[in-house]
Amino acid sequence: MATKNIVVPLEVEYLEKAAKKRGISRTKLVRFVMEKVVNDELVPAILGDDDLSNVEPPPQKYRRFRNPA
User: What region does 26 belong to: left with phi over 0, alpha with psi -120 to 50, or beta?
Assistant: First the structure.
């Protein structure tokens, strides 16, 4: 299954320099890097095998009417 349109804040200046050095767009650079990570299964090598579920708390959902429980 292909995943599309994921929004992730990235260091734009670094990506611009790296893409310009290689003569491609930032989008193509990021796409190439992500394809390389997925194809070579580099996630465990980059992140290790630690549990990362608590790294970033889930976004708080807006609820218009909350029950005062």
Answer: alpha
Number of separate domains in the chain: 1
Alpha-carbon distance of 29 to 49, in angstroms, equals 26
Give yes or no for a contact between 47 and 67, defined as CB atoms under 8 angstroms apart. no
Question: Per residue in 8-67, pLDDT tens?
Answer: 777 889 999 999 999 999 989 989 998 998 898 888 888 777 766 667 777 777 777 666
Q: Report how far residue 19's alpha carbon sits from residue 17's, in angstroms, rounded to the nearest whole number.
A: 6
Query: Does pTM top 0.90 for this prediction?
Result: no
Q: Is residue 30 part of a domain?
A: yes
Query: Would you say residue 32 lies in a domain?
Result: yes
CA distance linking residue 31 with residue 62, whole number of Å: 32
